[in-house]
Amino acid sequence: MNSTEIKGNWNEMKGKLKQQYADLTDDDLLFAEGKEDEMLGKLEQKLGKSKDEIKKMIADL
User: Fold this and answer.
1) What does the mean pLDDT of the chain come to?
2) Which segments constitute the CsbD-like domain (predicted)?
3) Distance between CA 32 and CA 21 in Å, rounded?
């Protein structure tokens, strides 16, 4: 899944991530254009997973 697909489906994915990982906040999942790496970094820290693992997890939602 590429950045364009993530942006297009982000609200749906955000809801699924919050259901699966209750400790994630809206701030953690803030996705603004040009902020993909920052958001992935926050998720890496919060979930203790690598960037590749997070991208795969998002793609699998």
Assistant:
1) 81
2) 5-56
3) 21
Can you tell me which residue has the tokens 């982000």?
Answer: 10
The domain spans of the chain are 3-60
What's the CA gap between 58 and 49, in Å, rounded? 12
Q: How confident is the model at residue 18 (pLDDT cuts 50, 70, 90)?
A: confident
**Helix or strand holding residue 41 (H, E):** helix 36-47
Torsion of CA 34, 39, 40, 44, to 10 degrees: 160
Condensed to tens digits (0 to 9), the pLDDT of residues 22-52 reads: 888 888 887 665 577 888 888 899 899 998 9
User: CATH number of the domain at 3-60, please?
Assistant: 1.10.1470
- Please give the structure tokens belonging to residue 6: 């993530």
